[in-house]
Amino acid sequence: MALSSAVPAGASPAAAPGRGLLPLLLVANTAMYSLYIGVAGILLALQVEQVDPADKVSNFGLIAGVSAVFATVFNPVAGALSDRSGRRNPWILGGGLAALPAMLLLRLADTILLITLAWCLGQAVMNVYQAALTSVVPDRVPMTARGKASAAVGLGLPFGSALGALAGAAFAEDYRTGYLLFGAIVAVAALLFTGCTRERRLPARAPLPVRAQLAAFASALRDHDFRWAFIGRALLVLGYFAVSGYQLYVLQDHTVLPAGMKPEAAVAVLTPLTSVAMAVSTVLGGWLSDRLDRRKLFVGASALLSAVALAIPAVSASWSAMLAFAVVNGLAFGCYMAVDTALVTMVLPRAEDAARDMGVLNVANAGPQIVAPFVASVVVSVSGGYTALFLVAAALAVAGALAVRPIRGVR
């Protein structure tokens, strides 16, 4: 999963979107995130535990980390290929339909190696789907409607997270069928989106050479304010995904659940709570930061709130503590992502390179997702439990909050 921070800026002129485009964007993004959350967050963890229960933490960290590399590589590659073709729908359709056989292979895998290979394939095809889908907004939506489009895309995360958690928990006892369900959800969403949206072929755009991309990356990070925004985002995302990726194992081995409640059912309670809190704080945080014209205040405060949330299950292993964590962490992360995205757009080094530099920022989203599973597995293995993982993640969130202070160009 390559977390997307914003609708890309600086895109080609777009005609007015069709009447059904924004609802279809919501459906397509919801389907995508439901697979990411339901498979990676529940079904994959259960499958790894069944194959090798003794080493589930290290194995899961290895699989998550290696597959995240595939996600990070295939996302820009697929984006460049769709740029060259001047089309998005064929890539959305191809990636979405390919999700079904990829989930079939994952369903049949019975060793850690085969699970790793199958999930890497799943990440590859899903990032073909995601890269093309992300480009739809700048291609087809005019600047005057970008706010509504951003909301449609952004709400896919909490909606998809809730759907993924509920469906994943429902198929916890039969995860092999669950894989096929999620593959079918994405395939149907791809068929629906491409069948119901009209696409105008755009002029093909040649991809930027690798050397030029590296030079652009270095150039953007030489800017003082942008560099600190990049560092702050990377630190917070690292802490967030170090914990969220191991949620099922945390509930199995750390949290004292109510009598009769299974960890998979607990995920189905916690994830919708987090999603609702995230949706509320995304809207409210963005509105308040606009009204008060204070970005750094909201970004720093939400990062510190995330640290407080992460400290709650470190202090208490109770179910009540996890419920509090789910709500507070959702409020913190939703507000952070909404306002930090606005902050970043205000500290871009050059307006004419906005799209390129937003791509650089996405490295702060994707890179920590690669590192997070390895960091988490090492912390848990060395400390012998999950308390240290929550504390390390909280420390990273505090560091992310402090990274906002040196930014000079935004209040």
Automatic annotation (TrEMBL):
TM segments? 21-48, 60-78, 149-172, 178-196, 230-249, 269-288, 297-315, 321-348, 360-380, 386-404
Q: Which residues form the Major facilitator superfamily (MFS) profile domain?
A: 22-411
Q: Topology in the membrane? A: Multi-pass membrane protein
InterPro entries in alphabetical order: MFS, MFS_dom, MFS_trans_sf
Does the record's keyword annotation contain Transcription? no
Offer an example of a GO molecular function term for this protein: transmembrane transporter activity
Where it sits in the cell: the answer is: Cell membrane
Show the GO cellular component annotation of the record: plasma membrane
Which keywords label this protein? Membrane, Transmembrane, Transmembrane helix
Q: Where primarily located? A: membrane
Which protein, by its recorded name, is this?
Answer: MFS transporter
